[in-house]
């Protein structure tokens, strides 16, 4: 029987609290609370916080038992989620979108983002207070938050309103995203 074990360093200034049902990570930018049942639905992972008093450092030790068949697929994703949480509360997550097309505009209001994307009506997207949206130009939107999954989900939701089309490239795309343009019909 193999035991999976991984140790992650916790930077100074971050605090982690583990209860029976949730995990809370606090940093200089905010806090993230995740239910342990969503991170580990089978209950096969053991999480332990190690305090090294000689170096004044903290570590998270993630231990999994190989007797369960799902451990090989679940263990790397849990490690990745912990790394994303540490990175999010210490530095934050940033994603940028571009609106390409004639008349495509975005305007930031107090509680929502107003998008004009060539539809007969403007689209109003509500803004969560845990995330910041910044506009450099009317055609560029920058999303910033501490939860990587949530920031990427909001970017995907906004992109869904007008995905880039393959013939002219018009639509909402991620910054520096390469769209392969198809050639139209020829006579």
UniProtKB/TrEMBL annotation:
Keyword Ribonucleoprotein: yes
Origin: domain of life: Eukaryota
Keyword set includes Protease: no
PROSITE patterns: RIBOSOMAL_L6_1
Location of the Large ribosomal subunit protein uL6 alpha-beta domain: 100-174
Gene Ontology MF terms in the entry: rRNA binding; structural constituent of ribosome
Recorded GO CC terms: cytosolic large ribosomal subunit
Pfam families referenced in this protein's UniProt entry, alphabetically: Ribosomal_L6
Keywords from the named record: Mitochondrion, Ribonucleoprotein, Ribosomal protein
BP-aspect Gene Ontology terms: cytoplasmic translation
Assigned protein family: Belongs to the universal ribosomal protein uL6 family.
Name of this protein: Ribosomal protein L6
Source organism per UniProt: Nephroselmis olivacea
Lineage: Eukaryota, Viridiplantae, Chlorophyta, Nephroselmidophyceae, Nephroselmidales
Gene name per UniProt: rpl6
């Amino acid at each position: 029987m193999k035991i999976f074990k991984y140790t992650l360093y916790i930077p100074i200034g971050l605090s982690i609290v583990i209860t029976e049902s949730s995990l809370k990570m606090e940093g200089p930018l905010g806090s993230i609370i995740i239910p342990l049942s969503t991170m580990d639905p089978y209950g096969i992972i053991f999480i332990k916080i190690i305090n090294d008093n000689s170096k004044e450092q903290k570590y998270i030790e993630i231990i999994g038992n190989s007797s369960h068949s799902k451990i090989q697929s679940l263990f790397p994703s849990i490690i990745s989620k912990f790394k994303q949480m540490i990175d999010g509360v210490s530095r934050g997550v940033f994603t940028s979108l571009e609106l390409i097309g004639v008349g495509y505009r975005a305007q930031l209001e107090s509680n929502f983002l107003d998008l004009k994307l060539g539809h007969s009506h403007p689209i109003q997207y509500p803004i969560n207070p845990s995330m910041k949206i910044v506009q450099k130009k009317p055609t560029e939107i920058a999303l910033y938050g501490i939860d990587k999954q949530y920031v990427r989900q909001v970017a995907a939701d906004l992109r869904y309103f007008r995905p880039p089309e393959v013939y002219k490239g018009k639509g909402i795309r991620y910054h520096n995203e390469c769209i392969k343009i198809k050639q139209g019909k020829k006579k």
